[in-house]
Amino acid sequence: MSRRWTLDDARELYNIRGWGLDLFDVLEPGHMAMTAGSQPLDLRALVDDLVEREIEPPFLIRFTDVLRARVNALCSTFQATIAEHEYKGLYRGVYPIKCNQQRQVVEEVVEAGRPYHLGLECGSKPELMIVMAEMTDPEALIICNGYKDAEYIEMALIAQKLGVRCVLVVEQPSELDTILQVSDAIGIEPMLGVRVRLAAQGTGRWKSSSGDRAKFGLSAAEIIEVVDVLKAREGLSWLKLLHYHIGSQISAVRRIQDAVREASRFYVELKRFGAEMGFLDVGGGLGIDYDGSRTDFDSSMNYDLAEYAETIVTTIAEVCDESEIAHPNIVTETGRALVAHSSLLVVPVMEASRPAGKVDAKLIEKYPSVAELNELHDELSARRPQRVNHRLADIRERMLNRFEMGLAGLEERAAVETMARDLARKLYRLVIRHGALPEDVEDLEKAELDIYYCNFSVFQSMPDSWAIDQVFPVVPLQRLGERPTRRGTLADVTCDSDGRLDRFVDVRDVKRSLELHKLDGTPYYLGIFLLGAYQEILGDLHNLFGDTHAIHVSVADTPRGYRIEAMVEGETVADVLDYVQYDKNALFARLRTAVERAYDEGTLPVTEGKRLLATYRRGLGDYTYLG
Fold first, then answer.
1. Residue 409 three-state SS
2. 597 by DSSP, 3-state: which?
3. Can you list the positions of beta strands (E) in 546-608?
4. Which end of the chain is more exposed for a tag (fewer CB within 10 A), N or C?
């Protein structure tokens, strides 16, 4: 008899402590909880409360407590590391808003970062407009990256008159001329940075975005040209910052160290050329351990926040001390690590599909192919899985050939396919008990899996899962005190075969199925975690499924234990139709014309026409997801 299932078993199965840090946990009575606040927040109870308020899932929950915890962790870790190693510069992080530009997110990051003078980074004119309005701290930095036209540059220069430090980072050789022309025209001296194109590269999916062929950044020769131009203008004092970026989600700390060392040498050389400097911006790249494995895997990282900070601080100090150059202030552009944990998508499971199992005994007697398959039940053996599997494939292939030639009917085909799936499931269960599956029977696992149909869109809510095979933690929000007895994949509500999840978090590798519970008629919700970085802004309107509801929640001393800080309504049918240039009133008018024509032709009763028009009008204002 198997031992009793515990909450620790659930923690281990879904590796909650690995990817959840101290922000999420599973608590009695087997519910997932957010644990970053002053008290745990029961997520299943929260979902039930929201549904009671007629806020229907799917919806995104943003946790302000998690945002604050991540900002505090990053900034306090750097401050502690600087103090421990007697580093002479300051830490001045910035949040790159491209990671998540939602107003509530940006404002919460700014508020949480105020004690640390955390600044903001922008990479476009619209983002600059957000940053200029949100950032008021004179000690914090505004870092201006990306392509810049004259208007962008003018706004950034004038922003300095608002009492903020706005650094224009030169990323292309031609940008300096435009900056200097605008500066001369309006009479405001620029605060400049240069982005260097390092030889060092990142790791994983974004490795190709760095190195000698990177999209942005100046070569060594181009940086010397910038210095010469500024020197001729007696403007070397304007050059304050060196910046680099070697890609997002850097999984190996060694690559971080190599890049910091190389950039530090560039910084030292710029100081020797006479540039004022003062800031070394190490860019983004601080990873997220999506699977909790702490490995050099695309969805993981083989270091933690403390090692990241120590690597940067000690490497810069070592290079500068060797060259007798003052320690610069350290700037990071950490986005993913600040906001990824803060958003959770709550997905309701609608139903589960399990392949049919048994075949009527009469069909076994009727069809030789079915009888042949039935005989294989007696030969199932974990010691000879290939032989059984080969016979199974042969019988099925022969039946398909006969079906195509008209020698086998639909009834026989259905019986063979049903019994074949049943045999495959039994064979898989036998071989899995004896270790790894032989290569030629790995596909047997698929016959064992259920499909859980869920009310959400992969393309809208987690596009990186579809686009770059990013793995996100998926955990049932309830029944974690109960041993899961099913294994399955997830299908969304789009009519696209890619609208599915079949890659899940695993400590050793990516697994192709998720352990789930048998549906019992009560609501069953899945939580998809770590969606706060990039997913919302990259969302795709596949099948015109729009943004979900978004609820901002914080732990509070209230009867429910939480407070809803903000509720952002999800998009309606009319909203998404407008994106593709359909006017709801024009659409309704066309339908009414068709209804009137049907009245005249006598093909549609008035009562049914009225019902159709009422349903259509109401539907235009409905949530795009299923009710």
1. coil
2. helix
3. 549-555, 562-568
4. N
Give backbone dihedrals phi and psi of 601, rounded to 5 degrees, phi first: -85, -5
Q: How many other CB atoms are there within 10 angstroms of residue 3's CB atom?
A: 7
Alpha helices (H) in 323-457, listed in sequence order: 336-339, 361-366, 368-376, 385-404, 410-432, 444-448
Q: Which CATH architecture has domain 64-342?
A: Alpha-Beta Barrel (3.20)
Report residue 25 as tokens.
């946990």
The CATH number of 361-442, from 3.30.9, 1.10.10, 2.60.40, 1.20.58, is: 1.20.58
- Reported as a single tens digit per residue, the pLDDT across 10-45 is 999 999 999 999 999 999 999 999 999 999 999 999
Residue whose C-alpha is closest to residue 259's, from 209, 181, 303, 311: 311
- Report the distance separating Cα 500 and Cα 367, nearest Å: 36
Q: Say which residue the tokens 């909450």 belong to.
A: 7
CA distance 507 to 12: 9
Q: Which of 145-176 are b and which e, b meaning 16 or more Cβ less than 10 Å from the residue's Cβ?
A: bbebeeebbbbbbebbeeebbbbbbbbbeebb
Q: Element (H or E) spanning 42, and its range? A: strand 41-42
Task: Report the alpha-carbon distance of residue 138 to residue 192 in Å, rounded.
Answer: 17
Amino acid sitting at position 386: Q
**With the CA atoms of 402, 405, 407 and 409 taken in that order, what torsion angle do they form, in degrees rounded to the nearest 10?**
80
Strands 141-144 and 165-170: parallel
Q: How many CB atoms lie within 10 A of CB 472?
A: 23
For 540, the 3-state DSSP assignment is coil
Domain ranges across the chain: 10-52, 64-342, 361-442, 574-620
Distances in Å between the alpha carbon of 176 and those of 148, 149, 185, 282? 10, 11, 14, 21
CA proximity to 466, closest of 495, 502, 509, 511: 502
Contact, 374 vs 286, CB < 8 A? no
Compute the distance between CA of residue 341 and CA of residue 503 in angstroms, rounded to an integer: 19
What is the DSSP annotation of 110-123?
A: HHHHGGGT-EEEE-
Q: Which residue reads 């619209």 in tokens?
A: 126
pLDDT digits (tens, 9 = 90+) for 222-274: 999 999 999 999 999 999 999 999 999 999 999 999 999 999 999 999 999 99
Task: Enter the tokens of residue 556.
Answer: 């509070």
Phi and psi at 29, nearest 5°, equal: -95, 50
Q: Sign of dihedral through CA atoms 205, 206, 208, 212?
A: negative
Question: Is pLDDT at 315 greater than 90 in this prediction?
Answer: yes
Q: Do domains 64-342 and 361-442 have the same CATH topology?
A: no
Local structure of residue 532 (DSSP, 8 states): -
pLDDT tens string 402-448: 999 999 999 999 999 888 888 888 887 777 776 656 666 566 777 77
pLDDT on residue 508: 77
Q: What's the CA gap between 501 and 514, in Å, rounded?
A: 9
Using CA atoms, how far residue 457 sits from 435, 467, 584, in Å, is 36, 13, 23
Global pTM? 0.91
Is the distance from CB of 200 to CB of 191 less than 8 angstroms? no
Instruction: Mark out the alpha helices in 405-551 (DSSP H runs).
Output: 410-432, 444-448, 458-461, 463-467, 535-538
Q: Which pLDDT score, from 0 to 100, does residue 170 have?
A: 97
Return left, alpha or beta for 579; rule: phi > 0 is left, psi -120 to 50 is alpha, else beta. Answer: alpha
- CA-to-CA distance for 439 and 340, rounded, in angstroms? 36
**Amino acid (1-letter code) at residue 12:** E
- Helices first, then strands: H and E counts in the chain: 23, 21
d(CA 94, CA 121): 6
* Cβ neighbourhood burial of 609 (10 Å; 0-12, 13-18, 19+): middle
